[in-house]
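Sample intake sheet
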Amino acid sequence: MARIGVGGVSLEVTLAGEGEPLLFLHGGDYFAQNQGFLDRLARRWRVLIPRHPGFGGSERPDEFRSVHDLAYLYLDLLDQQRLSDVVLVGSSFGGWIALEMCVRSVERIGRLALIDALGVKFGGREQRDIADIYALPAEEVLRRTFFAPEHASPDYSRLDDAEAASIASDRAATALYGWRPYMHDPGLRPWLHRVRVRTLVIWGQGDGIVSPDYGEKLCRSLPDARFDLIPEAGHYPQIEQPDRVADAIERFARAEVES
């Protein structure tokens, strides 16, 4: 664990592995459950895993209230660390941040992997693209989130007070950044053509938060993207199928290098 200051923001960042840089942007929940997937990535890349401001031990300045703030922050992080040809991987809420980064600049980004990303509105005004996790019963949220919730969902009764408090603060921060409008940026879709970097769109086949159909629409909206459906996985396929998702990203990166 390290502390990196970026423009006055103190970020809690985990660094793992050796090799070319990979920046992983986490989703709004279940952060600790990404560990097996991140360990796999660290066999191939030097992985940087920041906690977003307001999450974990990263401070949130009062003026940080939108995903745009996070996007500019991480672009500054790449500049400050002088990283280039970065593999950018974003899961769920982190995928939304990654898209916002890429419509602004791909100067330091070599390739992009989106895992069940949020952030874009495809349906009409009265259509819900993204399940409202704050309105649904907790059991329904788990059923929609995981293909096999009985195996993948955490046992909250076994968490200590510090872990429980961390999860609560992460959920509060997610709501702050993504509440109005709910988990999307109305201005993002028209600018997706600016994501001028080869992209892998990964989706859990059983995702009940944002459906695979949404993922396919996102894929078609990007200039150079392909879609990879992960069986026996829900909204966080890297948690339920860490090897399959890590292998897919590695194949994608290798193909990019060889082409």
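Comment: The chain has nine helices and eight strands. Residues 99 and 195 are 7 Å apart (CA to CA).
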